[in-house]
């Protein structure tokens, strides 16, 4: 089976590099530097998405939005121009499950297959082979793709039919986004009442308030003052907005989720859409008049 990968950014590049360790890839990205990086690891660069489709039996994509996935599939020089009957397209974008199901119907009409397999765990999880992969596909299609996904990570989950992977990813990201903001607020509460930031994190990591933000974001980024993570406020707001729109369309009330979306919009208004997601901690510090980061980092 010939395998391709399209979208070699911060997340897609890490996933492709992990897969390239065991599976020779044909790759495409708008960035020549990104393709060169994979080529140095043994991958074959392709000038267009169409060329990837012509060479491969299975193509994975990892882009920023479902609109970009649609463009890669059906735009000029896109996958649809080169798809062979039976080719499988696996979308690892954090996407819109409703759009994913539309894409499935349109790709299926071409005689190929489309499924979703988004991930959670960031580039470090991809590099370590531990990232969570949520695959939405019919059982027979999943069985064909599973060995390739397990070449990326040992943590692969079949979540149901097409679109269910993106449903699970949006639910996960909304929970993560909410925990991130609440952790900043609670840390300000503890620090504002005399507990050192590192002590507060250490204690809560051993208690019932433990979460991913305390386990990873604080030790790596907040307590060190090295805020850059490579994930923007705009992308976080996009994920949260997709989750709240999914709730609206399915009739599920999101009392807290809607507030989370508005908090990220407020952060964008004050810090800019391209600010790193960790920059939002500054807003909580200002509101509480405390510092969670080292003073010398501003």
Folded structure, characterized:
The protein is an alpha/beta fold and 298 residues long. 54% of the residues lie in helices and 11% in strands. It has 13 helices and 9 strands. The chain has helices at residues 10-20, 32-40, 49-55, 66-74, 97-108, 122-128, 139-152, 164-192, 197-205, 212-222, 233-250, 255-271, 281-288, and strands at 3-6, 25-28, 44-45, 58-61, 88-91, 113-116, 119-120, 132-136, 156-160. β8, α7 (139-152) and β9 form a beta-alpha-beta unit. α1 packs parallel to α6 (122-128), α9 (197-205) packs antiparallel against α10 and α11 (233-250) packs antiparallel against α12. It is globular. The relative contact order is 0.10.
List the helices and strands and how they pair.
Layout lengths: L2 E4 L3 H11 L4 E4 L3 H9 L3 E2 L3 H7 L2 E4 L4 H9 L13 E4 L5 H12 L4 E4 L2 E2 L1 H7 L3 E5 L2 H14 L3 E5 L3 H29 L4 H9 L6 H11 L10 H18 L4 H17 L9 H8 L10
Parallel strand pairs: 1-2, 1-4, 2-3, 4-5, 5-6, 8-9
Antiparallel strand pairs: 7-8
Helix pairs in contact: 1-6, 1-7, 8-11, 8-12, 8-13, 9-10, 11-12
- The percent range for helix content is 40-55%
The helix count comes to 13
Strand arrangement, major sheet = 3-2-1-4-5-6
Assign an overall shape. Answer: globular
Rg from alpha-carbon coordinates: 20 Å
Q: Can you tell me the CATH class of the largest domain? A: Alpha Beta
Most strands sheet: 6 strands, parallel
Offer a concise description of the structure:
It comes from Futiania mangrovi. The protein has 298 residues and is α/β, with parallel strands linked by helices.
């Amino acid at each position: 089976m010939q395998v391709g990968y399209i979208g070699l950014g911060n997340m897609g590049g890490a996933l492709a590099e992990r897969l390239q360790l065991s599976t020779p890839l044909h790759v495409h990205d708008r960035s020549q530097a990104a393709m060169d990086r994979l080529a140095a690891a043994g991958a074959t660069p392709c000038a267009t998405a169409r060329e990837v489709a012509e060479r491969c039996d299975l193509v994975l994509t990892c882009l920023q939005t479902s609109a970009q996935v649609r463009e890669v599939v059906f735009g000029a020089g896109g996958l649809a121009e080169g798809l062979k009957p039976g080719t499988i397209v696996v979308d690892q974008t954090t996407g819109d499950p409703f759009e994913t199901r539309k894409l499935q119907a349109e790709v299926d009409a071409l005689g190929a297959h489309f499924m979703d397999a988004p991930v959670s765990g960031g580039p470090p999880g991809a590099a370590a082979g531990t990232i969570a992969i949520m695959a939405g596909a019919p059982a027979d299609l999943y069985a064909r793709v599973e060995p390739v996904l397990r070449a990326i990570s040992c943590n692969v989950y079949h979540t149901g039919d097409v679109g269910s992977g993106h449903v699970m990813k949006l639910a996960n990201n909304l929970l993560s986004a909410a925990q991130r903001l609440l952790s900043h607020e609670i840390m300000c509460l503890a620090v504002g009442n005399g507990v050192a930031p590192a002590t507060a994190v250490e204690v809560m990591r051993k208690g019932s308030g433990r979460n991913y933000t305390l386990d990873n974001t604080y030790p790596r980024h907040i307590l060190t003052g090295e805020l850059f993570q490579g994930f923007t406020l705009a992308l976080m707001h996009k994920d949260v907005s997709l989750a709240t729109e999914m709730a609206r369309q399915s009739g599920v009330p999101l009392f807290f989720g809607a507030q989370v979306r508005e908090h990220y919009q407020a952060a964008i208004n004050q810090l800019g859409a391209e600010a790193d997601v960790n920059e939002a901690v500054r807003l909580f510090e200002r509101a509480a008049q405390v510092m969670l980061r080292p003073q010398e980092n501003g």
